[in-house]
Amino acid sequence: MKSDQIIVNLFLCFVFGATIFIYGFFPISFKNGKTATADDLPDVVLDVPLNTSGYRSRHSHSVLMVIDAMRLDFAMQNESMKYFSKLMKNDDACLFHLKVQPPTVTLPRVKAMISGTVPNFIDVVLNLGNSELKTDSFVHQLLLKKQRISFCGDNTWVKMFPNKFHRQLENMDSLFVNDFYEGDKNITHRLESELKSADWELLILHYLGLDHIGHVEGPKSPKIHTKLQEMDNVIMRIHLEILDWKKRLKLPSLFLITGDHGMRDTGGHGGSTFGETNIPLMVVGAGCRQTEEIYQQIDIAPTVSVLLGLPIPDSSIGSLITDMLVDLSYEDQLYALNYNSERLLKMITEKITESELRNNEFFTQLMEAKVLHAKFLRKTENLEIAYKRCKLLYSSSSRAMSDLLSTFYVKYDQISVALGVALMTATCIVLIRFVMSDNFSDTITIGLKIPTVISICVLSAALKHLICEFSDCSLCLNLPVSYIFTLATVVVTFFLLTMSNLKSNWSNIQSTFSGSKLIRILLFATLVHTFSLASSSFVEEEHQTWYFITHTFLLIICIMSLKKRQTEQWFLNAELLKPENRQKRTGAWSVFERFFFEFNWFMLFGLLLVGRRLNQTGDKWLSLPDIGDFLTTEEHRLWNSCFVVVSLCAMIYKLTDFNGTLTNVLTFTAAVLIYYYRTLNGHVYFAGIKPSESHSSITIFWLNILEIVCINCVPIFYKYLKRTHSRADLQNALGVNVTIFCLVSALLHKPHNIYLNFVILLTCDMLNTSCNQLFGGRNNLLVKVVGHYWIGKMFFFYQGNSNSLASIDLNAGYVGLQNFNFATVGVYLTLNTFNGLILTYLILLYNIFDVQSNDRSKSDIPYTMGLTSLLVILPFTFYAFVTIWFQSHIFIWTVFSPKLIYEFYHLCLVSFLICLTRIFHKFVY
To answer: What single string gives the DSSP state of each residue in 294-331?
Structure first.
């Protein structure tokens, strides 16, 4: 194999191991596949018979209204929710505080709401392509009883229950975040006909407009107030109809309003902040009692089941919201509490031993509650006292059992986790030894002969035996043979790779890190960042680590450059003092040059300071105002317009270094189209143009990009086919890639973030110039690769990203789109979210392939590929061990797991870039 081919194969092996690890790490929810039936209802407590006839529905109709991203404080805004506030004041409604668990995205939260189960964390990914729900829920129970359900709203429900609704109106573009009103208007319009017909037992409404406003403009947008008023009017309309049904049918109706999740203070959701994990449950027109107690979202499923007289879903682990049962008699309330408690106890007995069960306080409370319940039925105690005491004990024990089951409700595929970590560790070790060797210009021979195949088979059998010896037998039987064979193949291949022609030259390592103090600083900083990932606080505030080490690195480069300039100036002055050089004396140019050089660095640090304050990120200081908050307000739109114009002009100026004259003209045209598009969106001003939904500018923009590609790449491709291409042609192709990516990312960015593209271009230019002056040979390349990677990570956070899934700017995925397209949205979000990392890598390749540098060898690109791979693989491997160690940590699902998803996606993205680089390198050599 050639060296670049080895790197690609190693990286793909690592990605394979990481995929196995991710598959095993993210838990699979415990699902027994059972459906609850009426036979599950208890008929005796201790030796006293229970009256099961009281367990029935007392409602003529039920309405479940889900307002997407309805966080708790929205329901308390009396000015926005006037009608609901009036109902609460008159004791005709109650507001309960619900706590939801991460991940705070729609699919897992709807599952938790209707089934009472703890959803998979990986459902955050499945949210984009959800499938039919198999877990038992109160919706399934209604369908089993042949009761009709009508639905209007988010098509997530339709995918979960295909062909199950009596009537349905689904929002086909649920993920199209630019739709604030149309989808909700369609639901409200359909609501009128549903209320008039009323030929259903349950009506489900899922409004999306509030969530979309939060994604695009945040919870402080004036549109939030308007949307809440719209939702309040819908509540009023339904409540008035409910009152009419009660008069005619002499039966109350159940009307619940809640959110699937909340919204964080900067908009969006997916994390674990207070705004995202605290939602309201509003009960209108039914018996309830206002309380300050905090319930769980999973408590909705068993409570609704009891109120509708349905068997509680078999997998539900929620406890009952007792303050919603006040219309039931004392006997019926205690029956429902006993029913749910006995269910939870049965589930716990399957998880812990009998001795552990009896040592738990909830077991003692439950036994005491059952004794009091029996006395209450025999009427041998004061009924009021017995009821209150029994209800308290049932509630307390069921809550404790629910909390305990939440910890047992998931399981890990430990074998997949172990195999994945073993594969990643082996790959990482070999890659480190390979990168530190000096074989990048050589062809490496790996012997895979018959003895090798025999060794693989023998090792596979040994591994299989060891795993079966030390693991559960059923797990051993279900273990895919491909896992073992793959691991054995990799181990043997890596052994051959390490021990054969690939010589581990540790003297090269020593010479590399002894040649420059800066190189040792780079290694130390890389290790510091890697080890910092073992702390949840450092993961939440990772941007602070990158800001510190990258700014320090740039400051060191600046000081080294200034010192070198001073040394050169001293030698220059010494030469000018010689008599023979008297006529050459002129200090003006050198002084001006030094001033200009120092001014460039001073300006760069000032620009970086603005970039750091452009978007607050992380967790602790997220709510603090930043420059982006200032620019995006309506009263400061003029400032934003000027800021965007200056940013676009500066970006175009820096892109002239990569392009020819015609391409520069087209680049300017594309920038004008970007500004014009943002004018139509209402983000900036331009010649009095009013906001519009026209997307003609986007079409012209893409035609402009196509022109740039055709003008630059088609001739190069033709020359390549004719074998007449030169290094200048190939470098021009790399420069065009930088230009196109800058223009596309500027289109997808929030307008004020276009500024960051210019600063990236300037920072990389300053770094490249300084490295060429300060270092030579392999050290030059090492500093460039590490520096560009660090700059990319720093700008990842400058952009407002964090390790919370809520920081993803979903609005970027819908630029110029009229409807949802999974592939297009995915590509747009990737380009926008990882803009800094991709752009710095493209600039790095351009700088490495500098046609003016004659000392470059064909090993530079493979070394760049290897070192970049190592910078990504090393922290990921360590972080995999961290997540295993903290499997039971309180922040495993709120902090560590979202970071793991980010890192895995970043790993896949880098593997794609490495493969593209390998293809390019093959074309060159």
So the answer is: EEEGGGHHHHHHHHTTPPPPTT--PPP-GGG-TTS-HH
Task: Report the distance separating Cα 582 and Cα 441, nearest Å.
Answer: 49
Joined tokens for residue 5: 């081919």
- Whole-angstrom distance, CA of residue 857 vs CA of residue 262: 55
638 close to 682: Cβ distance less than 8 angstroms: no
Q: Within 10 Å of residue 917's Cβ, how many Cβ atoms?
A: 21
Give the gyration radius of the chain's Cα atoms: 32
- Which residues lie closer than 8 Å to 78 by C-beta, 6 or more apart? 85
Quick: pLDDT tens for 443-482: 666 555 555 555 556 555 555 555 555 444 444 445 555 5
Query: How is residue 580 annotated by DSSP?
Result: G
Length of the chain, please? Answer: 925
Bridge partners for 65 per DSSP: 205, 257
Long-range Cβ contacts of 720-725 (<8 Å, 24+ apart): 720/923
pTM of the full structure? 0.80
pLDDT in the model for residue 34: 82
Residue 393 reports pLDDT greater than 50: yes
Give ∠ CA 277-281-282 in degrees, rounded to 5.
145
Calculated CA dihedral for residues 507, 510, 515, 519, nearest 10 degrees: 130
Residue 356 in contact with residue 325, Cβ under 8 Å? no
Task: Answer yes or no: is pLDDT of 530 > 50.
Answer: yes
Q: Which two tokens stand for residue 7?
A: 């790197």
For residue 103, say if its preceding peptide bond is cis, omega within 30 degrees of 0: yes
Could you read off the pLDDT of 589-609 as tens digits, one per residue? 456 666 677 788 899 999 999
What the block records as the tokens of 735 is 């420069």
Inter-axis angle of helices 481-499 and 450-470, nearest 10: 130
Supply the mean pLDDT for the chain: 83
